[in-house]
Amino acid sequence: MRPTEPRAIARPSFTAKDRYLVQAVVRSVWLLRAFEPGEELRASEVHRRCGLSRSMTFRLLHTLVHCDLLERTERLTFIRPGTISPALDAGKAIASRVRPG
After folding, report:
1. For burial by CB atoms within 10 Å, which of 34, 90, 91, 96 has the most?
2. In CATH, what number is assigned to the domain containing residue 89?
3. d(CA 101, CA 94)
C-alpha cells in the first residue's frame, strides 16, 4: 500500500474589498479544516497542510485548544474531537469562554 500524499488545503484569499473580514477567524477556520474529524496531527503537519508560518500555526493551535475546538494529546499532537458542526459547536465553545462586561 502506498502512503498517501499529505493533504493540502486551499489558502483563503483576503481582498481589500472585504474590510469586515477578520483574518484571524478565517485562518482559524482554515486550520480546523486541515483536520478530518478525529484525526490526530502534529503541529508540523498542520503547518505543512496550511502553509502558515510555524509560529502562527502554533499560536492558532494553542488558541483553538484553549477554546475547546481542538484537544492536545500526551504525545504532543492535536486532535479535532468528533464531528464538529463548526457554526454550532464553535459558537457554543467560544460563548462559554466569553464573559460579558
Report:
1. 34
2. 1.10.10.10
3. 16
What pLDDT score does 3 carry?
42
Residue entry with cell 503541529 = 43
pLDDT for position 11: 64
Half-sphere exposure of 88 (CA within 13 A, CB side): 3
pTM of the model: 0.66
Domain count for the chain = 1
Residue 13 forms part of a structural domain: no
The 10 Å Cβ neighbour count of residue 89 is 15
The answer to whether residue 84 is domain-embedded is: yes
User: What is the extent of the structural domain holding 41?
Assistant: 30-95
Rounded Cα–Cα distance for residues 15 and 27 (Å): 14
Q: What digits encode the pLDDT tens for the residues 17-62?
A: 777 888 888 889 889 888 887 788 999 999 999 888 999 999 999 9
Inter-residue contact 12 to 26 (CB < 8 Å): yes
